[in-house]
Design goal:
- This protein starts with a helix and ends in a 5-residue tail after the last strand.
- It has four domains: about 160 residues, Molybdenum Cofactor Biosythetic Enzyme, Chain A, CATH 3.40.980.10; about 45 residues, Alpha-Beta Complex (Molybdopterin biosynthesis moea protein, domain 2), CATH 3.90.105.10; about 80 residues, Molybdopterin biosynthesis moea protein, domain 3 (Molybdopterin biosynthesis moeA protein, domain 3, Beta Complex), CATH 2.170.190.11; about 70 residues, MoeA, C-terminal, domain IV (Beta-clip), CATH 2.40.340.
- It has seven helices and 28 strands.
- The model has no long low-confidence stretch (mean pLDDT about 90).
- With about 400 residues, the chain is α+β, with helices and mostly antiparallel strands.
- A six-stranded mixed beta sheet has the order 7-4-6-5-9-8, with no helix packed on it.
- It is elongated and about 95 Å long.
- It catalyses: adenylyl-molybdopterin + molybdate = Mo-molybdopterin + AMP + H(+).
- Catalyzes the insertion of molybdate into adenylated molybdopterin with the concomitant release of AMP.
- This is Molybdopterin molybdenumtransferase.
- It holds the Pfam family MoCF_biosynth.
Length: about 400
Amino acid sequence: MISVEEALLKIKENANDFNLTEIISLEKALGRVLAEDIFAPISIPPFRQSIMDGYAICSGENFDYKLVGETKTGESSDYELKSGEAIRIFTGAQVPETADIVVMQEHVKITADGIQLEKHYNSGENIRTMGEQIKEGEKSFLKGEVLNPSALGILLSFGVKEVNVLKKPTVSIIATGNELVDAGENLGQGQIYESNSHVISNTVKQKGFEVVSVSKVKDSLEDTENAIQKALLDSDIVLISGGISVGDYDFVGRALHNLKIEQIFYKVSQKPGKPLYFGKKDNKYVFALPGNPASTLTCLYIYFFELADLLMSRQEIGLTKIKFPISEALENNSGRALFLKAILKGDCVEILTHQNSSMLLSFARADALVFIPADITSVKKGEPVTSFLLPSQN
């Protein structure tokens, strides 16, 4: 059995960059990871641009300016203003090269020949210079950056329609157990409705990965082996729910051994989620997850998310960690690290009830997992604790 820290380190040591790329349209690129650096093909803005509606002037010796024309947004401006001349201009329009100031329309008086300034302006006021935001040829985005709405907006401003991104690893899910029944079927004695595969699938999708197959397997070695073998052929990551303990009808461990999956670790000193398995074969990865729902979800958030970000060469790895003062004192007599469902309240974090590994109710309300290391036996009220922020449920 290894520690949480050792398990995360082993995932990092064994996660190879996925390295497969694909060209996709910007309409489908939200949340995707760049496969290469992007250099600006044009400057933004691509010309000197008016910040507001008003008048572009070529500074003269007094406050009176002759009006010689007008430039609308979207039009080319080839005016060569002389000292003391002005044109009417609108927000976003091109400023003539010889104009050095854009005057707000609220600060001028209309005269017979043009305009009269009602206040003094300094050179360059209300003009965006060419390349003020990004200059042509400048490195604008780095490989490994996640494309958010703002990044996509800038790429569209470049005139880009497609982008080279890392291809996402695909995921197969296997749920094991004779006791599992699908929702809608009659529930017999000793049976339970199967939910883990749905929890896993939705969590994988929450991470932005594609689930290519979901299968349910009865407790037999042959069926388990066949299901894992097919999943390895179909996908890059296999997530198995249940059957990883050492009971007479837990066949996952034996099946993984028979299929020559390299075991990286098995069992982590944590609560919940102790019987967690991580292995690999070539460039395929396997997590055998505990069967209890809260244990499953905890392991997905802490370990699967870690692997997913590493494979995608993301700059930010795993859940965001922040220290918050704990709202009440806490004892840890388990000898293991704790992951506790919690909710952020004001500037504190509050541990929820229903922490049992079989209970999902507290997870449905939680927005954080509080981490208590194995060597910490007590935490005082108000003491800062590491809190993993759970993804938004929206």
